[in-house]
Design brief:
globular; 17% strand; 46% helix; Alpha-Beta Plaits; five-stranded mixed β-sheet
Amino acid sequence: MILIDLDHFKGINDSFGHAMGDEVLIKVAATLLRVVRKADLVGRYGGEEFLVILPQTGNHEAMNLAELVRIAVKALTWADSRVRLTVSGGICEAQGETVDALIEAADRKLYLAKAAGRDRMEGYPSE
């Protein structure tokens, strides 16, 4: 699983307006759907968070996919050229725990990515 957060999303809404914020969310969702594999599931998890479920995928392969997502989002262009967007993410491999515990583990990795400066994915090796 990959838990993805849009870095400094509130600043986009505050500086460029909620219409731009909506454009960002829509474009990021479309990018996720384009980059992930057909078997993967993508959903909006919170305000500016997305969850990607990667069935039968090890942590190393998930990390590679997460990097593709990070790079694809960073390369997006916007109607207002001043907008810059990066994402951070936490990757976690299911090892028999509950869904809630798995999401919590991915969230801890996400916070590590944020603390390390954002625009990065954390998760390999697995805990």
